[in-house]
């Protein structure tokens, strides 16, 4: 009888421990869900995307400006050297003008290429952030599924324990009486 009481007490303690563990796990799950859905995470992703775009634009603008200045300096030097030689002035002037036009065209083409590269980089960054967000959602879904499975298993174990302990008349009574017929 003492063994039975001790087993019953151990089973009850185990049930209390499992219930406490379950409540703690639910509280943790709730906190994780709240942090995943927080606007701060979404705003952080947006902020990083914007910072990357701005930084890229500044770098490209500086590079284009340097190239433009270098091309203008080179064109002016050619014009100045062309002016010193009177016999070739017209030819060199036209050549310098054509080179200047070509350089401006190249700068414009470079600017377009840089803008396209920036756009692709921004799209790729956005795709990576969205992929990461989907991975986090999938991880969350898997954790929830694991919690459901664990809860189901715990409920089955609890039902088995109740059945074994004879609570709620879940176990049939066995009679050991000898019949003398």
TrEMBL record:
Residues 135-158 are annotated as: Disordered. It comes from Actinidia rufa. InterPro entries: ARGLU1 (IPR033371). One of its GO terms (cellular component) is mitochondrion. GO terms for molecular function: cadherin binding. This is Uncharacterized protein.
